[in-house]
């Protein structure tokens, strides 16, 4: 079993148009996000039940993990209006071993829509929204052996966060 690493990056201002339209997440998306979240992790070692996935997504909206920032949490829908990708952002993740900056809680894409740049687009959108709200940085945590996620975040100028003694 591998550990996790915390990555941090500067938020950014971009004026580019997104190749795929997105919108802000809403509470009406909870069932679709729960299903997508479950499917995204169904084959992983950390697999959960559909019920657990639903509880986690509901917990995000309820602030269980930290103050939720829906306006910095974009989703992408397919042509039928089904949510196929999402970035979920918290103002700050509860916990004592993280930077005191916004936290990318989850980023997931339906398996049938992967390798199309949606994850990168959603992270860039979230970073731009955070920049517009005055936040200078954003962080996240990933499994240290998740090479695909690490490659994505390095492309977006995330770096490993090492806490100062003052941060502990």
Automatic annotation (TrEMBL):
Domain of life assignment: Bacteria
N-acetyltransferase domain boundaries: 20-168
PROSITE patterns assigned: GNAT
Cross-referenced Gene3D superfamilies: 3.40.630.30
PANTHER family listed in its UniProt record: ACETYLTRANSFERASE (PTHR43877:SF1), AMINOALKYLPHOSPHONATE N-ACETYLTRANSFERASE-RELATED-RELATED (PTHR43877)
Keywords, sorted A to Z: Acyltransferase, Transferase
Keyword hit for Acyltransferase: yes
Cross-referenced InterPro entries: Acyl_CoA_acyltransferase, Bact_Acetyltransf, GNAT_dom
Organism whose genome encodes this protein: Kocuria gwangalliensis
N-terminal signal peptide: none
Name of the protein in its database record: N-acetyltransferase domain-containing protein
